[in-house]
């Protein structure tokens, strides 16, 4: 019951902030831009789909850095984080409620973007090679491979401030793009910045009927690292926040 109450309180706090609006407008803008470009682009079908999802994978770290900075700044301005630190009994629950709400917003934003793109791509541009199930799974892949980013950016935002979170997001976006090139072929399974772009690219190849037998070892390794890394990051973040006493507001 405490968690539900805290989640409701968190959602009420974000109603009059840019946080919710960002999760609503950015997906619409991204999908609209890609659909507008694809309406006259000479690219083939698979090139368009791959570029869209890889573009989302590269852009998400910047968006995550921004929204986590907003969430931290909101707490700083509301009373120097005291609403989250007022009681050790609910301290972790307060942190979890904020993380869960951000993940819920992220899930909704990613699915909204993919839904708008898939409907426009199929119904308006008549590109129907992949069904809606493909796009739904791709959205789940993007969301699950970015959970660790929310954990990292909440830590950075609370500990070092909003500027650090936004700056880190920009650097991460560049790393995601870099690991999608040949430079990341051998190391992407071990780095969070390589997971989303490669996972969704592999899903596209699988859906197109490409045989990925030679890549099974890398795929299994990357899934294990993704799950283990996310769980470890979550556990460490809870331990850190339990000991955290706040910082001076910016």
TrEMBL record:
InterPro entries: ABC-transptr_permeasesu. It comes from the Bacteria. CDD domains: ABC-2_lan_permease_MutG. The chain crosses the membrane at residues 20-40, 52-71, 99-120, 132-152, 164-183, 195-215, 222-242. Keywords: Membrane, Transmembrane, Transmembrane helix. This is Lantibiotic immunity ABC transporter MutG family permease subunit. The lineage of its organism: Bacteria, Bacillati, Bacillota, Bacilli, Bacillales.
